[in-house]
Amino acid sequence: MSLYLILDLAILFVPLVLSFDRRVAFYRRWPSAIVAIVIVGGVFIAWDVFATRRGDWSFNPAQTGELRIWGLPLEEMLFFLTAPYACLFVYEVVRAYTPEIGLFVTPWMGSGLGIAFIAAGLFFYTQPYTLTVLVVFGLFFLLASAVAPHLLMSSWFWTALGICYLPILFVDGVLTAIPVVLYGPSHIWGVRVYTIPLEDFFYSLILIAASFLVHIMLRVRLTGGPSAGLPVI
Prior knowledge:
Elements: H1 3-17, H2 30-54, E1 57-59, E2 68-69, E3 72-73, H3 74-97, H4 107-123, H5 128-147, H6 155-177, E4 181-183, E5 192-193, E6 196-197, H7 198-223
């Protein structure tokens, strides 16, 4: 069993076991969570396949299993299922145990941030991964500001995002230190924090935040109950 697969299973273990906690009752939110995981995970797997073929990164065969699906190790594909599940569980824990506090974040702020990141991405047009991740990060804020402006005002959203971000970065740090993932030198800016390329910080944020966005927008429609951080839709 590869270290990457062990990390995938470790990410999933505690959230899955505690999904039946009486107060959180995450299992009741599985319909919206599963749809969010399939949508967001599917988009990230497609991005991963494209980026791997383009040369943004590759995978160390000595640190992954032999099975490849569309050029990706099985462990890589599982990550886009286990990590969103764990993050959505964290979101529901935050929602169950903390009060919602409306933050002063207007749609104009989100849109302005989105435009700024898209412009910054275009500046790095010679580094494909840098360009892609900054543009997608900007597009997320434009989308959230347009279709779910209350999301950016939700303390549940930002608190859960912060809690999830640290363990995801820990996993990324392990994968880049061994290394499991190898980056094309000409495809990234070259700035790293420890062994993590700066671009990966934005990549992780998009994965978590997009999972929250889809889950929250579907939460009422698929599972009922009060909307989490959004007006009832």
